[in-house]
Amino acid sequence: MPPNRSEESTVTAISLFSGGLDSRLAAKLMLQQGLNLIALHFCSVFVSEKNAPGVSDIQSTAEEYGMPLINLDISDDMIELIKEPEHGFGSGLNPCIDCRILQLQKAKGLMNETEAQFLVTGEVVGQRPMTQQKAMMRHIQQRANVAGLVLRPLSALLLDPTIPEQKGLVDRNRLCGFSGRQRTPQIELAEKLEVHDYPAPAGGCRLTEPGYARRLEDIMKCSRMNRKNIELLLLGRHFRIDSDTKLIVGRDEKENGELKNRGSEADLMLECAHYPGPTSLLMGCYCEKNVQLAASITARYGKAKNLDRVEIKSWGRKKLTLEVQPAKDENFAGMML
Ligand code: SF4
Prior knowledge:
CATH class of the largest domain: Alpha Beta
Bound molecules: iron/sulfur cluster
Shape: elongated
CATH topology of the largest domain: Rossmann fold
Strand order of the largest sheet: 6-7-9-8-10-11
Number of domains: 2
Distance between the termini: 61 Å
Helix content: 25-40%
């Protein structure tokens, strides 16, 4: 008879939990078998809060499922990974294979700390071209040193039995054999398991977005891949002034406020002195030519863009007052990232 564990179950697993439908279903299938689950959620500067389930949603779902939640920020590891991923990139700057290896390695580290016996993921065979083909799934788990320890309840019947199945810790007969990109089986299973209010499938990883990848590539070329510069990619219009210098111009009040908060004494902040307009952040080389250009682009995006001369004030690295002509679009269009 299949195991049907009680509340005192001593079987504990770590469930990689993105909060999306597949990870919810995988967790539910395991909880149905009476296992103790610890939810592990990876966050990073590369995950879009707009498109991915937010931390508070994940927290409340984990609570509802009775799973303690570990939020692990892997931003610094990802920043290093992107510089030279062993397995290359996907369609954008997404190093998916190395990213999955990293996630499983991190999860393995937590297995040791929490005495969990294995890992659970919501992966579905054939759902993603890079990381969810059978041979690649095997390769990834071998490289992460978790061969036999990754149970994928949604596709388990299509995969070799894992160690927890072989040991009888989990009943393989109560697992699924889903494959491919079709969502219908998951939606039907969600009905059965009473999994409601799950988010619509959406990317979530900015590294797959072409516009974001272009901006990121620019800071990679200039060897300025640090957390501050990566976080700044989400704000404003970006201009590459020269190989060392970048200008970011706020697009609305919220971004202007964010730029003010994030600029340091080492950066140059600019604003129109007497008219509404953007806050700009100049980083890199502060020679007169660059400062003048940054000031004229700042004037171009302000309310006084049609005047002949606009006064711009700066603070941070240098306190200046400059009078500039608002830049003409054709003179800086090529600098826009
Ligand atoms: S899409 Fe992004 S988060 Fe997902 S595996 Fe690829 S790099 Fe990692």
